Amino acid sequence: MTPLPLADRYARFRDAVFSGVAEHLPGFAEPMTELQLQSLWFSGSFGSEFTTTDGRTVRIADFGEWNSGAGPDFSGCAIVIDGQTVRGDIELDSDARDWERHTHGANKHFNHVVLHLFLNAPEERFFTRTSEHHDVPQVLLQAAMLPEGITPRTRLASARMGRCALPLREMEASSVQSIIESAAQHRLDLKSRRLHRSVAAHGREQAVYQALAQTLGYRRNQQPFAILAQRLPLKKITRLDAAKREAWLFGVSGFLEGVRSEDTEPATRSYLRQLWSEWWKLRSGMGRWLDGHQLLRWQLSAIRPGNHPQRRLGALAALLRSWSAIITPLADATRWSQAAWRESLLSLSHEFWDTHYTLLAEASEKPLALIGETRVQEMLANVAYPLLVPERTRLWAEYLELPALLDNQKVRRAVLRLFGDAPRGRDFTKKLHHQQGLLQIYEDFCLEDDSACADCPFPERLKEWS
Ligand code: SF4
Q: Which InterPro entries does the UniProt entry name for this protein (predicted)?
């Protein structure tokens, strides 16, 4: 991959600003559940090479698959340790002692565990032993292993004009454009690094599929969409015909469980019958995913009907039917065509979801776009260009031309803090890269500041950028 010079310039500027002021380490921006950690692990976000607690190097040759039955979290994995490839299962716990607390050491289902991962460990040495008295290699996972910005930051800085608004007003417009563009490229570079870790762990197609699914989850349901795409990987799901594939998607999502046929209209009843005719055969083997802490937690409150995850899952099903058209322009940066890709996404259609918001809603009078312009824009910003720009840097010029379609609270907050009510604020929000650059500056400076701007180094250091 080719290094991106503007991204590098912004990173050096930011890190110089923070040197001696605060430690700028990647990490968990917010507390995470075990399910979220498992998803991060499986996506390859922690990397694939580690040092065990007894000092040996271990490489993950195959991340395996999420286990839907009794036993460890991941099965069918392969690790390379002491020069030997060892196949078996992987277990991830919040704390090393969970192995004994949850009696895994006495459970024969855990006898094939080849690697025990955890985030916390006691001070005294703790051993992971199976019921057959095998000593299992251990790896302590740390937040610092994760690429920067891996977890979205939901905190908001206060809504008021910041101390940097005055110097930003007085700066040459070209210098303001330059810092925003550089911050945008840095943001794209971070997304690219995260996506390419996933490519390294699972291959290009699976990484793209997972990233697109995540984008369909919007902000609040990204995690369940990512886990769904991990539990039902392409290699498994594209082998199925469309009806079976859809039954798996809706069944594993948990959406079929709470819907009573008698509460639905005739068209939905017939669709449900079609899904259940496949799902009932599979359901018993997936019990682990439909219960307790392994159940996907969908955020359904304050969601617009058009963004409901059931409808977005319908869009994912349609996207998988047209998978070849979706992946071909991304398979190789020299074959990229924004127009063709955009058209493939905008023309997706589904006989049920074209006219339904949810499984319980009545049919709409007119067909609704399954994937609209704004979602395509998000997919371009979060999947296509982060994948392709480092492979073909001339695509950066194409990225710079993308208009800003998404209006969100974070962008509005960033504009208010950095520009106040100056007209300049409007000039620098017209393009997608403007928004992305402002968000990056906002996250790097405003969200790091606890002094109501008083100690923020950004305003003084701006003149060095000029
Ligand atoms: S925290 Fe820094 S970057 Fe954010 S508004 Fe205040 S001065 Fe500007």
A: DUF2851
Where in 17-97 does DSSP place strands (E)?
Answer: 49-51, 57-62, 65-66, 74-81, 84-95
Question: How many angstroms does the Cα of residue 456 sit away from the middle of ligand 1?
Answer: 6
Tell me 135's DSSP state.
Answer: B
Q: How far is the CA of 145 from the centre of ligand 1 (A)?
A: 28
CA of 413 to the centre of ligand 1 (A): 11
Does residue 445 have its Cβ closer than 6 Å to ligand 1?
Answer: yes
**Ligand 1, atom 5: closest residue by C-alpha:** 162
SS3 92: strand
User: Judging by DSSP bridges, how do beta strands 57-62 and 49-51 pair with one another?
Assistant: antiparallel
| CA distances in angstroms from 306 to 21, 190, 310, 354, listed in the order given | 44, 29, 10, 11
Read off the pLDDT of residues 421-460 as tens digits, 9 standing for 90 and up.
888 888 899 999 999 999 999 999 999 999 999 999 999 9
Ligand 1 atom 4: residue of nearest CA: 446
**For residues 186 and 10, is the Cβ–Cβ distance under 8 A?**
yes
Measure the CA–CA gap between 212 and 393, rounded to whole angstroms.
Answer: 22
Average confidence score pLDDT of the chain: 91
Ligand 1 touching residue 457 (CB < 6 A): no
Question: How much distance in Å is there from the Cα of 31 to the middle of ligand 1?
Answer: 25
| Two tokens, residue 188 | 């794209």
What CA–CA distance (Å, rounded) separates 292 from 286? 13
**Nearest CA to 315 among 216, 207, 215?**
216
Whether residue 24 has pLDDT greater than 50: no
Helices in 203-355 by DSSP H: which ranges? 204-216, 222-231, 234-237, 242-253, 266-282, 309-321, 323-327, 338-346
**Domain ranges, ordered by start, for the chain:** 47-140, 220-371
Per-residue burial over 235-246, b = 16 or more CB atoms within 10 Å of its CB, e = otherwise: eebeebeeebbb
Number of C-beta neighbours around residue 60 at 10 A: 22
CA of 152 to the centre of ligand 1 (A): 20
Nearest-CA residue for ligand 1 atom 8 is: 164
Q: Cα(237)–Cα(230) distance, rounded to whole angstroms?
A: 11
